[in-house]
Amino acid sequence: MGEMIQIRTADGGQMAAYVARPAKAKAPGVVVIQEIFGVNAVMRGIADELASAGYLAVCPDLFWRIEPGVDITDQTEAEWKKAFALMNAFDADQGVLDIDAVIDALRDDPACTGKVGCVGFCLGGKLAYLTAARTDIDASVAYYGVGIESLTGEAAKIAQPLMMHIAEEDQFVPKPAQEVILQALKNHPQITIHTYPGRDHAFARKGGEHYDEADAKLAGGRTLAFFQAHLGE
Questions:
Q1: What is the CB neighbour count within 10 angstroms for residue 190?
Q2: Mean pLDDT of 77-93
Q3: Of these residues, 201, 212, 215, 230, which one is catalytic?
Q4: What are 151-168's pLDDT values in tens digits?
């Protein structure tokens, strides 16, 4: 369904991105923020699904400053090793600036209504949270974001709606970290948090070890309803 495009970054670079366009001529935009495996089939599939639901979806290659074109899976030890190395080399602050460039590009696209949201997974969940805090995005969704417990102070800057999906048995966000997040954010007027009992990290990643179809559909339905409420259709 989609195609690769180039987006100009604030510092003049060229970042590749996968774009999936809906059938209608004008639609809200959604930035799909990758996991640690790059713009792979799972991320492209999410963009395609959002396009089918009526959104102009763009998934940028956020690892482009380290290694352009990363497209790996979660199926082998070697790929996991590479994914963690990429995550450790990744500059999240720069990543948010690159996401901001994607937001601007979407708003400049004649096929966009001007409303733009984002949805991120894993590393992308953390970036979605930071995007909510540091940009003028209209609505953000964070799936099992890693490291947010050390960034709760950023919440004071969140002025637009943010939805968070937290897996209660997340091996990368242990119970004490979840408690910090919940206590710090639960009363924020713009933040809605859903927790998923019994679910581990990446419960919504199709084909993944911890994929749970029922809760993936539940979270996906909540996400679409959230976007419809805050971005329109």
A1: 15
A2: 97
A3: 201
A4: 999 999 999 999 999 999
